[in-house]
Design brief:
CATH superfamily of the largest domain in chain A: Glucose-6-phosphate isomerase like protein, domain 1
Oligomer: homodimer
Number of helices of chain A: 16
Distance between the termini of chain A: 54 Å
CATH class of the largest domain in chain A: Alpha Beta
Structural class of chain A: alpha/beta
Order of helices and strands of chain A: EHHHEHEHEHHEHEHHHEHEEEHEHEHH
CATH architecture of the largest domain in chain A: 3-Layer(aba) Sandwich
Helix content of chain A: 40-55%
Shape of chain A: globular
Chain lengths: 425, 425
């Protein structure tokens, strides 16, 4: 079971940490916030009830297992969850078959270089855009569509779409071209869509047990719907972030101590930045609120960012993700027994060294009055990753309520889109 | 030639941008700041004069070209520049021979999984630690040393060290084991060491023209030593960051619009965080200063972070890196001429789309009073990347002077190291 440890907050001066009393004030308000969230008709916490799609996804991935390369065309919420899933469950140094590539940019070198490795006859493209109208994704699609046609291959064999159930250009094309299409439920926005076909279809090609992802998500969703403060991890995390934001902690550092969770931080960065970075509150008042997410990795970034976290401005909350079990134990051998300076490393495991460094980092931060909390994950598997996705999605919903903003829109990117179109005309 | 465009700062309200007058005040002070920096006896801007090492590095890489895998063991400043070099000049989807792996963490899964692909007989380990005493790197070395011995292979054939010229445990071992060792000059700290053997030796194995890296660095170093404000790009960038920090812009977003420069942002994040995040100033007064670096990628993060940059708190400076030439032009084909909505993409190149989106993003941010500057790079090659490294290293030196701090130490990580040792005893 995933747990949250926030006791370090109480060890820190009140100016920078929290007191039991400050939390106490909110402990009975979980039901009210939950009620508000439910009234928004968002679907992110109901993904597991869409079992029909699951079977279709599994069947589709099974049927297409002759393909050598699966290329996901998508950007932002259409890519970040998928990248996280790939990094979490892939071998660090070996590609499995089929290879899954996620093209989430339009840099010309991507197109020049992906062609060096693709055999179009054995390639399936998954085109992902919630709106069906994302220019970057559509331009990628146009490019590869032309290639498939040039090779005299059938588009309906080499493309699959994931988009809005009824609207948008991609939906239209899917009908005209007779291309298999999976829906993104209307009430689930891009950055909350990793546990829909958006993440699950690519995951199925990666050999990930997608049912277990959903089982984990469902468990955490029950936590989320629990009106008891002590049982509601998403509420606790959101409340801590909110209260500390009032004390000037406008930066949230997401710092997993697990190599394979590094991309989880990227996924979370979008979720936090786009959901909570808002000019207007629900009363249309200008508040220019936001928490800036920062991605970090233990132990690596102890040698890069930690100096700043320990000594810089008091503007951060650090969220550690700690994995308790890494599978096999690997020991640091004592190859130079005569070298006294390094006997402290003698015959301990790398896991022990990593976890001790995490503990030491946490203590040093606490001593320096830097607020930090730890989310403990028994081991990195499908069920727990599903829970983690849901934990943070749900915490974002509460955070939106605390700040009295709409956590589910993104009006601030419209101007750039309009200017792009104008400039190209 | 690399150029800097900061004119958007003048389009923004004075509260969030800059005026010519504010810059004017500092325009004659470049010589004084330069004099201060020179008195610190730092070597980062003199790397190109170490030509002896260059020839040795090239010769060594030539001799060892029978190896299939080169494994770099190092962390922080011993890894981030090397990762940046690899990502900048590697094919996005294909590995070249020899493969270069950079192991900058002690997560047990790294060790379990790297063994699946290594043939020790054809593997060379480059062990990199400036101090020669970094526990993470030494424990990695101990692990692979034991493997090499178990395979009855000769350590001096399969290891090469990069460390302090005279001190530290690794230097001692190099003598006892007769292992080839390249120096990190004493006056160049880890995070400033990418253009020493630390980055250059792995780069030579990657087929990168390391002389050109240094030629580019030397060009920018001449800029750095130029007393004329208008010629001194590093001074301009540092001054902008410093003045905007006085206006509450405590976050620096590094946002390249080029897939292969993404890891440049990681390298810069360490440089900025560790150098400028300081509790004490030069007069030992507590100031808790620091700029928090945030890594971002165009156009990808327009769909992840931009909402926050446009609408959130006024706490950021965005530094764009813009590449002007990507080699071949790749066109977005007009495959659905009847679809009116997307005719704006018709037959333009991906480069054009990317650069237009960058321009639009920049304009939207400016309109929203969000300060941003652009560094223009004619194309991504060795010379320009060398210049870029030097540009930011030198700007950090000026930034240290503006804040009146020591930009070259990292006292804030000591406590964590001490606690780790205590806990393991």
């Amino acid at each position: 079971m995933i747990t949250l440890d926030y006791k370090n907050l109480f060890q820190i001066s009140e100016k920078h940490g929290l007191t039991e009393k400050e939390l106490e004030k909110y402990k009975n308000s979980t039901p009210q916030y939950l009620k508000n969230i439910k009234s928004l008709n968002q679907g992110f916490y109901k993904v597991f009830s869409e079992n029909n799609t699951i079977k279709d996804i599994q069947k589709f991935a099974q049927e297409k297992n002759k393909f050598k390369d699966i290329v996901v065309l998508g950007i932002g919420g259409s890519a970040l969850g998928t990248i996280c899933l790939k990094k979490a469950f892939s071998h660090l140094f070996q590609e499995r078959t089929p290879r899954v590539h996620i093209l989430d940019n339009i840099d010309p070198t991507i197109f020049a270089e992906i062609e060096d490795i693709l055999n179009y006859e054995k390639t399936l493209f998954i085109v992902v855009t919630k709106s069906g109208e994302t220019p970057e994704t559509l331009s990628q699609y146009f490019y590869f569509y032309k290639k498939i046609k040039e090779k005299k291959l059938a588009p309906q064999e080499h493309f699959v779409f994931i988009t809005d159930p009824t609207q948008g250009l991609l939906r239209k094309i899917s009908i005209e071209e007779n291309i298999t299409t999976f829906p993104v439920p209307m009430n689930i926005g891009g950055r909350f869509s990793v546990l829909t076909a958006v993440g699950l279809l690519p995951a199925a090609f990666m050999g990930i047990d997608i049912e277990k992802l959903l089982i984990g998500a469902e468990k955490m969703a029950r936590n989320f719907l629990n009106e008891d403060f002590e049982q509601n991890l998403p509420f606790q995390i959101a409340l801590i972030q909110y209260l500390l934001a009032q004390k000037g902690k406008n930066i949230t550092v997401m710092m997993p101590y697990a190599q394979k969770l590094y991309s989880f931080a990227d996924w979370y960065c979008q979720l936090l930045a786009e959901s909570i970075g808002k000019k207007l509150n629900n009363d249309k008042k200008e508040i220019f609120v936001g928490l800036t997410p920062v991605k970090s990795l233990g132990v690596t970034d102890q040698h890069s960012q930690l100096q700043l976290y320990n000594e810089g401005p008091f503007d951060k909350l650090i969220i550690f993700l700690e994995v308790e079990n890494f599978g096999q134990e690997i020991t640091i051998p004592n190859v130079y027994p005569e070298k006294k300076e390094f006997q402290f490393l003698k015959n301990i495991s790398f896991k022990k060294l990593l976890q001790t460094e995490k503990k030491a980092t946490e203590q040093a931060l606490t001593k320096n009055n830097r607020p930090n909390i730890t989310i403990k994950i028994p081991e990195l598997n499908e069920e727990n990753l599903g829970s983690l996705f849901m934990l943070f999605e749900a915490s974002i919903a509460f955070l939106g309520e605390f700040f009295n903003i709409n956590a589910f829109d993104q009006p601030g990117v419209e101007l750039g889109k309009i200017l792009t179109k104008e400039m190209l005309k």
